Amino acid sequence: MLETKRLVIGQMIVCHGCCCGATQKDRPEVPVSWLKDEWRKRGLLKRFQLTVSGCVGPCDVPNVVVVNSEAGSQWLGNIAHFDQYRSLIEWAGRSVEAGHLLELPREFKEHRLEPWR
């Protein structure tokens, strides 16, 4: 089995593909540059990986975010406001400080997405 020196508590995948962030299709913006800069400034990369990805689907729900950890995946959709991305970064920072993924803020309860059926 392969091992890595970098032990992370999780990975956040932010979709920025064919639909997510496609303002020309009247979809909400994904603040990619800001996310990357803030993630770096807060020193999160070594413990909580940020990945900006092409399409992760499902394309009928805009602005999808997937949080992966050893416990599984949590999918969020319709992340339409800048403050929601700020809240996710603050949550990631608190999780890194705690040494494990904390429960997602309550504001994301209505954004939970079940892509597998």
* CATH class group: Alpha Beta
Task: Please tally the helical runs, counting DSSP H or I stretches of 4 or more residues.
Answer: 2
Q: What is the CATH T-level topology? A: Glutaredoxin
Structural class label: alpha+beta
Strand arrangement across the biggest beta sheet: 2-1-3-4-5
Low-confidence stretches: none
Distance between the termini: 31 Å
Strand content: 15-25%
> What is the averaged pLDDT score?
94
- Mind describing the biggest β-sheet? 5 strands, mixed
The counted number of beta strands is 5
The assigned CATH architecture is 3-Layer(aba) Sandwich
- What string gives the helices and strands in order? EHEEEHE
Radius of gyration: 14 Å
* Overall number of domains: 1
Query: So what's the overall shape?
Result: globular
Task: Please give the share of residues in helix.
Answer: 10-25%
- List the quaternary state of the chains: single chain
Description:
The protein is of the alpha+beta class and 117 residues long. The protein has one domain: Glutaredoxin (3-Layer(aba) Sandwich), CATH 3.40.30. 23% of the residues lie in helices and 21% in strands. A 5-stranded mixed sheet has the order 2-1-3-4-5, covered by helices on one side. Helix 1 links the parallel strand 1 and strand 2. The termini are far apart.
